[in-house]
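Severity: low
Component: inverse-folding endpoint
Summary: output formatting inconsistent between runs
Steps to reproduce: submit the following structure tokens with default settings.
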């Protein structure tokens, strides 16, 4: 984008690793019962949609405040 291939070769793997960490955390949270299957699916789908994180953040804060995962 800005024609700096060194930045891409450094930041690309970091971005990919952080995404894999996010997926692992979502799967662990689902396995431990912190979120249900619908919530895990919502988080994973939202990670592919632009600005989906903002919608999921609002949903997660509401769920945390209510003390429920539905």
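Observed output (run 2 of 3):
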């Amino acid at each position: 984008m800005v024609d700096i291939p060194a930045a891409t070769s450094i930041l690309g793997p970091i971005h990919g690793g952080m995404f894999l960490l996010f997926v692992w955390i979502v799967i662990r949270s689902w396995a431990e019962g912190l979120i249900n299957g619908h919530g895990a699916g919502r988080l994973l789908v939202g990670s592919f949609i632009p600005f989906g994180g903002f919608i999921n953040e609002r949903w997660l804060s509401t769920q945390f405040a209510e003390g429920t995962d539905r």
